[in-house]
Amino acid sequence: MNFIVFGVVAPIAYFILRFLVKRLVMNFLQNLKRNTNIKNMTKCENCEMFFSEEDIKFVEGRNICNKPECKNNV
Ligand SMILES: [Zn+2]
Question: Global pTM?
């Protein structure tokens, strides 16, 4: 009886485990991709938030974002 249960449960457990590991690896790779995207982000030196490079302007030696309160604060 135990032998039959193991024969059924083990392959299912193996399948689920493989599925979970695959998903984990996929998530890990997606996070890696996201992290490389962050490298293209620039920190606004006024509000300390990260923006993509096209939303940041180099003003008087500082990186300043597009937000009105930051632009007018330089
Ligand atoms: Zn800002």
Answer: 0.45
